[in-house]
Amino acid sequence: MSTGRPPTFAALDTGAPAGGAGATLLLVHGWGGDRHEWDAVAAALADRHRLLAPDLPGHGATRARPGRHTPRLVAADLAAWLDAGSVGPVVAVGHSMGGQVVAALAVDHPELTRATVTVATGFGGTATLDQLRSEQAALEREGAAWAARFADRASGPATPPEVTERHRRLLAAADPAVLAAYREAMYLAPDAFGRRPAAEAFLRGRRCPALALHTSAEAAAWEAALPGHPLSTQLTWPDCGHYVHEERPAEVAALIEGWCRRVAAVG
User: How far apart are CA 174 and CA 158, in angstroms?
Assistant: First the structure.
C-alpha cells in the first residue's frame, strides 16, 4: 500500500552557489554506475550552479525498487523527488542509461525539464533483437562476471585505467538482478526505446532543447535528422570511450556550461 511519500535518493546536492545560481543541473549516471562518476564535472560547475546527482535505485547508496527499474519509472520517481524539493525546471544531464532517463523526464515531465544533455546516450542503438536477447541471456546466466566485463568493452584507448577499474568494481558488486531488469527495460521490454525505431518514435515527444554528445558520427547524424527543438544540437567526440564525462571532465563541464548559457539566452 502506498504511503504517498515521495521516493528518496542518496544524492549529491551542492545547494545554490553563494554568488547567485545559474540553471539547476540534474546529473544522472548510467547502467551500473553511481553519482560519484560526476564528481570531477560537478567540481567544475558548482560555483555557478546548484547540482543534484542522485544514485539511481539499486545503484550506489539508493536501495533497489523492484518493479520500477525502468527509465520511465525512474524518471517518474525523479520527478516526484524534484517536486517534493520544489526543484525545477532543471537542465537534465544523463550518461548512457541516464540519457534514457533524462529523455523520459523531458517527454513525460516537460514542466520539470528546461533542457537536456545526453552523453554517450543509451538510446538509438542498432543491435538486433537476437543480439540483445543473447547478451541478456548471458547477463542472466553469468551475472556479475558478465557485467564487470562491460567496463572493458566500454573503455577506449584514452580511457584512464582507473576509470575502467572503478566501473569494473562497481559492476562486479552490483546486484545482477537489478542490472538485468534495467537492461531488459532499456532494450527488450514492450515499451523499451533503446533500439533505433522505438527511439525515433519516443523522441518525437521531446519538446525542449536537447544537446547530444555522441562518440559515433553515424549516431549523431541519426539524431540530427529527428524532428526536435530548433536549438537542439548534436556533437561527436569520436576519440572517446563510453565514459566520456570521466575521460574529459573539464571539457564536458565546459560544454554543459556553454549549453546552459545558450538555453538561458533564449528564455
Answer: 26
